[in-house]
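Structure tokens please, single chain.
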Amino acid sequence: MPTHVGPHASPHPSPHSKPLSNPLPPPYTQIQNLLDTLATGMERVHALLTWQDPTASALAVLSLLLTALAVAACGLPALCAAALLSDMLPPPLRTPFPAMGQNLLRTLPSRADRMA
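Here you go.
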């Protein structure tokens, strides 16, 4: 025995009563994930530049000073050639760990970390 509400109620759901949270198609999901990753990275760079983590900011300033000294001592073309040669290392000679800069940025806080 169906329980109807009102005189014109139907036991079948209306096509307009679909849930409003339809999943996004795969290309849009990929774009959303890419934008989320980009926003998280920019939040971490902002945290680095605004000294929210003084140790990480001091390490970043120190690494920038060392890079400036290396450019002054060796020259920019020599450092670019060294960076290209180190990037072209064959896979068995590469280290499985992330670069120091990437590791530093991953440890900085973001809003996504605070929501959990």
